Amino acid sequence: MATFLHRLGRLSFRRRRLVVLIWLALLAAGTFAAVKAPAAADDGVSIPGTESQKAFDLLDQRFPGVNSDGAEARIVFVVPDGQKITASANRAAVEHVVEEVGGGSQVAAALSPFDTGAVSKDGTTAYATVSYKAKTSDLTDTTREALTDAAESGREAGLTVEMGGSALTPEAEMGATEIIGVAVAAVVLLITFGSLAAAGLPLLTALIGVGLGIAAITALGSTFGFSPTTATLAMMLGLAVGIDYAVFIVSRFRSERAEGHTAEEAAARANGTAGSAVVFAGLTVVIALMGLSVVGIPVLTKMGVAAAGTVVISVVIALTLLPALLGFAQRAVLPRASREPGSAASARPVGGARGARRTKSGAQDPAREKAAMGTRWARMVIRRPLGVLALAVLGLGVIAVPAFDLRLGMPGDETKSTSTTERRAYDALADGFGPGFNGPLTVVVDAKGSDDPKAAAAKAAEDLAATEGIVSVSPAAFNEAGDTAVITATPGTGPSSTGTKELVGTIRDEAAGPESGTGATLLVTGTTAVNIDVSQKVTDALVPYLAVVVGLAVLLLMVVFRSLLVPVKAAVGFLLSVGASFGVIVAVFQWGWLAGTLGIQETGPVSSLMPIFLIGVVFGLAMDYEVFLVTRMREAYVHGERPGQAIVTGFRHSARVVVAAAVIMIAVFAGFIGMSDSMVKMMGLGLASAVFFDAFVVRMTIVPAVLALLGDRAWWLPRRLGRILPNVDIEGAGLSRRRTAAPGPGSSTEPEPTRV
Description:
Blueprint: H1 2-14, H2 16-36, H3 51-62, E1 72-78, H4 88-102, E2 107-111, H5 113-116, E3 125-132, H6 141-156, E4 160-164, H7 176-193, H8 196-219, H9 221-224, H10 231-258, H11 263-290, H12 298-328, H13 336-339, H14 366-383, H15 385-400, E5 408-409, H16 421-433, E6 441-446, H17 453-465, E7 470-473, E8 477-478, E9 484-491, H18 498-510, H19 512-518, E10 521-525, H20 527-561, H21 565-590, E11 606-607, H22 610-638, H23 643-670, H24 678-710, H25 719-724, H26 733-738
Helix pairs in contact: 1-2, 1-11, 1-12, 2-8, 2-12, 4-6, 7-8, 7-10, 7-23, 8-10, 8-12, 10-11, 10-12, 10-22, 10-23, 11-12, 11-20, 11-22, 14-23, 15-21, 15-24, 17-19, 20-21, 20-22, 21-22, 21-24, 22-23, 22-24, 23-24
């Protein structure tokens, strides 16, 4: 591996103009293909194998022309104190709003509350239901504006008018957060490297990789069903790993130059050593993303595949385009002191940069200062490894305690800020009709095998009405064939409450009663039931997902580190950091700790998709940090250093890279906490805290403590296993053996090219 990547780095450096032109051509071709590609259809979220999905499929089959996953909206009307919604003026205002909305070309039906009986018992609240022919993502701006304008006309008539439903879901907006992330990354990299070029190259290559990845996803969207939302994870991870990988290689290039190698040899050696680490770090991320297919939710599988493809592009760019760009910025990426005449890195003998490097004024070089900080920290840890390990593990364990109370669900409008019309509509409906009215259950009666479909539907409605927890049941609505009916059952509890989840389970368990007596089959669906099914499916998939991802990663890390205990330690450390981050999420979003400070209006269950996303993203980044940090330790150990000194050497070379990468990611993810959407807040807090715990507590503290306690045993590998596993030479030992000569003091020429 190291030898091949050494050759690739040297070739890219020498043919840098051609390499840059090839990548620019690929980016241009990808952009052109994306612009010309037909728009990808949004297939929505399907959950194969669940009862709610079976019911949706049955509705599409038995009710042709009715789009079961079309957008819908609820317009809620509340009269001023002392008035009734049925008063002539108020009634006229409501009907005017409904008529105004119903004229849209994408509207399938707009039902007046006075025709459907959607008026509260106290006469203060009513709601109109608007159903659309198109899905939420396909609604035009004109349709959305018509809904908003109609509501405003109701307000002008003196009513309080609020809106909810899927039609109000905003279109995915990407860009602002990524721009903030790039700006933060630029500042951190500039501080870390002290060079505009060294800070700029990782940003440039990461943006090219993300641009090409998004272009490919868009161009292939209609072929593979990649919707616009599929690119969200690809953009986030592509930017993260693209910066990380380039930073690691640029840092190694500067280190090799400081050791006295020429620019070409330094680029080749950086590719052969740091590039090998990048390859395997990228593979762990790809494993985590492809593992999303274990969940069995197609949209997650597509997001994982798209993001994995973008990560692969980022790896290839780091190994080819970056060495080429280093050829154009050979001196510019070096610290300022190294660029001055007489003190250039190329003028130093091999090994001559071991001491602290100072500028002409005698001031310590910033890069050396950061390295010294990492060295001091590593020495402190290995002096007291047991105490440090116990304190770190105990701290993470305490923070993870709330995770034992983790409740999964799909937070809805009830968790949004009261400044949003969706939350105000939710509260108005709950006040006027009861909390369960915001999460009605759709019960589909398949009476095709029944001798008397109407009697079967009536029996089903009667049984539903008698079920504890149901407050109202609508009359059965049949299709044209008369063999399928739809019944709406309103629970007495809110859509995200435990009581509603138990109620759905009860109805499904008791469905065998009507079936055995009438020959009909009952299926429960609707938004509330779908959310419950998604939560259950994700919960069931967590253990298999962890087993697949962690198991494959442990095998991969065995190959990388030629060790049995280091990969196991890496996996256990990841579980500690993820557990602590779940503890933070539960404490804030379920228990309400610091909820007001973070602008959280209402506590509730943790989003069902959060564990999978958090585990996948954090696992990839955690293994990046593990590979970047421990490979330098492994390299030093292979080259003859004692275990303790190898840990210090690894920190001296890699600590600032890991810190810079972690700070960038924490800043980017923390930016999401300020968003108004509860789900976005949850993702921001969860990812930011997980990266913090993993980078600073696990990788920078627990890892050196464990390795110090293990000593030589950390790098032990059974002989039989060692013969089976391939030796990928990630530490570049083969390069050192093949190196025939070293440049002497003042020499600017490289040794004769090694025959590799």
